[in-house]
Design goal:
With about 450 residues, this protein is α+β, with helices and mostly antiparallel strands. The chain has four domains: about 35 residues; about 120 residues, no CATH class; about 180 residues, Roll (C8orf32 fold), CATH 3.10.620; about 90 residues. Helices cover about 40% and strands about 20% of the residues. The protein has 14 helices and 18 strands. Strands 1, 4, 5, 6 and 7 form a five-stranded mixed sheet that branches. Strand 10 and strand 11 form a beta hairpin. Helix 2 crosses helix 3 and helix 5 packs antiparallel against helix 7. It is elongated and about 85 Å long.
Length: about 450
C-alpha cells in the first residue's frame, strides 16, 4: 500500500511539475513573440466602469505657418477595410488619439478618448485590423503604445488606445517633432521636382540618424520604432527609419508607404514611393552605412530589391479573418517595374568603352560634379565590358584611367576644389554593375 501511495504521489508531483514547466515555457514564448515585434499590437479587455473622463487635447503635427509645400495623405490602409465598423473606428481614431488623459489610470496607462461603436459587437481581429491600418497611414502618430483595450458592452463595442506619454509630455514632444520636421524640409520649394525632394530628405534623414543596434524589442526603447526616434532622437531601427521617411515624403507632397518583409532573412521594413504613377522601392535603413550615405537601394525595381529582400504578401479583401494577418502582411504592395529614377540612372554616368570620347565625357562629368558640390562620382558599367577588368583598368592597373580623369579635371578646377588623388574610396557593387568613387577636395 505504501508503495502504491508513493507511486501515486510521485506521479501527481511529476505531472504537476511537467504542467508547470510547459506553462512557463509557453508563457516565455508568448512574451518573446510580443517583445520581438515592433509591429505587434496586443489587445486587452477593459472595464467600462473605469472610464476616464478628463482628457487634454494635443495639437496635430503640421508644417510651419507660411509653408508653400502641398502635403499629401495616405489612405492605402483605410482602403483595405471592408466593414462599416472598421471604417468608423478608423475615422474615430483620427480624433480620439489626440485626446489624452491628464493622469494615468489604475494600471498606470495614459488613455486616449474612448470610442463607442454603437449597435455593433466587433470581433477583436477587426478592431486590430482597423488600428493597424490607421497606424500604417499615419506615421505622425508616434505616442501610442502597442496595446489597445476593448470591451463588448451590450450591443456596443468600446475601444481605447494608450499613450506612452501624458498629455503634457506629448505636447512638448510634438512641438520638438514639428520643429525638426520643418528644419528637415526647410529647403524644399514648390519648383523642386519630386526626385530632388526625395534626395534631399533621404540625405538629411540619414545624416542625422543612426541604426540602434542595441534595441531588440519595443520595450527596450519604443522611440526607435517610430518616426520621432529617427527624426528627433536620431536613433532608430528599420521601422523608425521607414515611418520617418514616409512622413517626410508625405509632408513634401510625394506619396510614400511602408513595406513589410524580410531583409537577408530577418524581419525588415522599408518604403515604396510614387512618381507620376510609377512606384519604386527605397530602403533608407540599408542606405545608412554609418560612415557615409549609400544609394544602392535608392529607387529600385522589384527585381533588384528582391535579390536580398522578401516582400510580405499583400492583404486581400478576405484575409483578415486570421488575427495575425495584419501583423504579417502588407496593406499595399504596388508593382515596381522601373529603374528610370534610380540614383545611378539620374545622377550617374554610363561607361561603355574606353576611348577618347568616353574619356572626355568622364572628365566633364567629374568636373561638373565637383563644381556642384558633390563628392560622389556614380558610375554604371555597361554589360559590354567585363566589370572586374574595367575596375582594374580604372584604379589598380595601367593605364589607371580614373587617375587620368582626375588630373584632367584638376586642370580646370580652382585650388579649393581640386581632387586629392590620395584620398579616394571606391565602393563597388558588381551585382548591379555600379561603383561610386568617394573623393576629397582641397
Amino acid at each position: 500500500m505504501k508503495k502504491i501511495i508513493s507511486r501515486l504521489l510521485y506521479t501527481l508531483f511529476f505531472g504537476f511539475s511537467l504542467t508547470l514547466l510547459i506553462s512557463c515555457v509557453l508563457l516565455l514564448i508568448n512574451n518573446m513573440s510580443s517583445e520581438l515585434s515592433g509591429n505587434g499590437i496586443a489587445a486587452v479587455r477593459i472595464n467600462e466602469s473605469g472610464l476616464v473622463s478628463v482628457y487634454d487635447r494635443v495639437e496635430e503635427v503640421s508644417l510651419a505657418a507660411g509653408s508653400t509645400i502641398t502635403e499629401t495623405d495616405c489612405e492605402r490602409g483605410y482602403n483595405t477595410l471592408t466593414t462599416p465598423e472598421e471604417r468608423e473606428l478608423y475615422r474615430s481614431l483620427e480624433l480620439a488619439v489626440y485626446n489624452i488623459s491628464k493622469e494615468p489610470d489604475e494600471q498606470g496607462r495614459y488613455t486616449t478618448e474612448r470610442i463607442r461603436l454603437k449597435g455593433a459587437s466587433v470581433e477583436e481581429y477587426r478592431l486590430r485590423h482597423a488600428l493597424n491600418a490607421f497606424l500604417f497611414d499615419n506615421p505622425q502618430i508616434f505616442w501610442l503604445d502597442n496595446v489597445f483595450g476593448f470591451v463588448h458592452s451590450g450591443d456596443d463595442t468600446v475601444v481605447e488606445c494608450y499613450s506612452e506619454l501624458s498629455a503634457d509630455q506629448c505636447k512638448y514632444m510634438i512641438a520638438e517633432f514639428s520643429d525638426k520636421i520643418d528644419e528637415l524640409l526647410s529647403d524644399i520649394t514648390p519648383d523642386m521636382n519630386a526626385y530632388a525632394r526625395e534626395r534631399l530628405i533621404h540625405d538629411r534623414l540619414l545624416a542625422g540618424c543612426r541604426y540602434a543596434d542595441e534595441v531588440k524589442a519595443f520595450s527596450d526603447d519604443w522611440h526607435c520604432f517610430c518616426a520621432y526616434g529617427a527624426i528627433v532622437d536620431g536613433n532608430a531601427v528599420c521601422e523608425g527609419y521607414a515611418k520617418a521617411f514616409q512622413l517626410l515624403m508625405m509632408r513634401a507632397g510625394v506619396e510614400c508607404c511602408t513595406i513589410r518583409g524580410q531583409g537577408d532573412g530577418v524581419a525588415h521594413m522599408w518604403n515604396v514611393i510614387c512618381f507620376s504613377g510609377t512606384w519604386y522601392h527605397i530602403d533608407t535603413t540599408w542606405d545608412d552605412t554609418g560612415d557615409f550615405i549609400n544609394y544602392e537601394y535608392f529607387n529600385v525595381d522589384d527585381e533588384n530589391i528582391c535579390r536580398n529582400h522578401i516582400i510580405a504578401e499583400a492583404m486581400g479583401k478576405d484575409d483578415v479573418a486570421d488575427a495575425k494577418e495584419t501583423e504579417s502582411r502588407n496593406f499595399f504592395v504596388p508593382e515596381c517595374n522601373s529603374m528610370a529614377l534610380n540614383y545611378y540612372n539620374v545622377e550617374g554616368i554610363r561607361l561603355s568603352e574606353f576611348s577618347a570620347k568616353s574619356d572626355a565625357e568622364m572628365i566633364a562629368f567629374i568636373t561638373d560634379r565637383v563644381r556642384s558640390g558633390q563628392t560622389m562620382i556614380p558610375v554604371t558599367i555597361a554589360g559590354s565590358l567585363n566589370y572586374t577588368e574595367c575596375v582594374e583598368k580604372m584604379f589598380y592597373k595601367s593605364p589607371y584611367r580614373f587617375y587620368y580623369y582626375i588630373d584632367q579635371a584638376n586642370e580646370s578646377l580652382d585650388d579649393a576644389h581640386k581632387i586629392d588623388k590620395n584620398k579616394i574610396k571606391i565602393l563597388r557593387n558588381e551585382q548591379n554593375r555600379t561603383l561610386r568613387v568617394r573623393i576629397s577636395l582641397g
